[in-house]
Amino acid sequence: MDFNINNFLESFIYGMKYFPNTLRLVFIPLSVGLVLGTVAALIRVYKVPVLCKILAIVITVYQGVPIIVALMIYNLIFMMKYNDLAAFLHLKGTIADVDQIWIGIFALSLTAICSVSEAIRGALLSIDKGQDEAGYSVGLTKIQTIYRIVLPQMIPVAIPMLTNHVVGLIKASSVVMAIGIIEIVAGATIPSSRTYSFFEGYVAAALIYWIFTVMIEYLAKILRKHTGRFRRNLYD
Amino acid sequence: MGKLFEWSRFFENIPKILPYLTVTFSIVFYATFFGVLLAVFIVLIQIKKVRVLYQISKVYISFMRGTPMLVQLMLIYYGLPAIIDPLLGTSINRDWSAVVFAYVTFILNQGAFLSVIFYSAVTSIPYGQTEAGLSVGLTHYQTFIRIILPQMIRVALPPFGSDLVGLFQGSSLVFLIGVTDIMGRAKTIGSATKHVLEAYVFDVIIYIIISLAVRLLFWYLNKRLDYTNGRKTGGKEGIPWIST
To answer: What is the ipTM of this complex?
Structure first.
């Protein structure tokens, strides 16, 4: 087989050039997911009436939607309706002025909220009810108990699941190339369309993702040790 | 342009898309069937700690878990011809249909993911179980089939179910290499009629139904296989699959 190392290196450099786009596509949705996902998980665990039922149904159903189909639909609706919306809100500019990456970020954020809330809900359920009661018994309010007692214990339990979801998000972020956003995969194959070396391009993209995810998993391991240092028995 | 979404077009699309569901199901079937075989092979390597192969399997699993499905699909699509053609003098890019590349990718991918599930299931059974089996005179093979496997299936079932849900969703990517599954069909309808939203919405409904059905099936299987009489339950949540 012919594997052209020069084409590979060129693809690798192009892929790295668009690496910041992937970072935006991963970490903005992750931050949104961590905030809103935690809120959603708390609502479900503490059984806020009506809202907890609605969230349970919406999250269960939305988890059945493949990210690429959701992305296609959002992209389509955005393309068709943006100009009307901009006219309605008296915004200047047309669709051409908007960076398409925000559609990707929007779609990935919704996915992140669902998956993060499931991970955090699992971790919250693993905290004993006695911890809440202990908090109330010393006169803490509900919010204080959650913030000072439950959340710190929940974090080390949630980290392994969250790491899986972050890696899942990194991998999911590659599908946005289907609507024309340039991130690692699309970037690495820019030189390929000139040199016809698509194989080298995709190998370069795979390598970048591989290094990135292995690094994230390593960092998560350290973070888990650090956040769980007050626990008497770590699980591993 | 007309209206963005119209129910008449939505219902017109149903008979056009539904036959292509077989493509999705065939990908999932092949990936699961051969994936399980590959996973068993990998788990055997890891348990017996076969030299060289053990290290290769580690790297292989790390690669499959660390790179996006999309990239793996493209690597197989462009890489398999680049490797096999010069060796055998074939041109498989023209001879094989695109769906074959999808099969190969998903089998390789599932092999890695399932092997992780099976490995942790096997190692979750205490070694005392094997010793107990051997002490009453069972052979190693009998111990595995009668003692370890039934307990292992119970442990492996929940992650296997969520893996299957993920596999159905992942199979929606194959239209990117030109396979006409339900997504690919939606795209062709879109380019023929200029109205693609109805087709996509129908696809979403199909995927949601599949995902809920798989969750329900595995929840039911999980309940049926709970022969510990609820003594040993994983968590106190009870029903993780349909979580209301």
So the answer is: 0.83
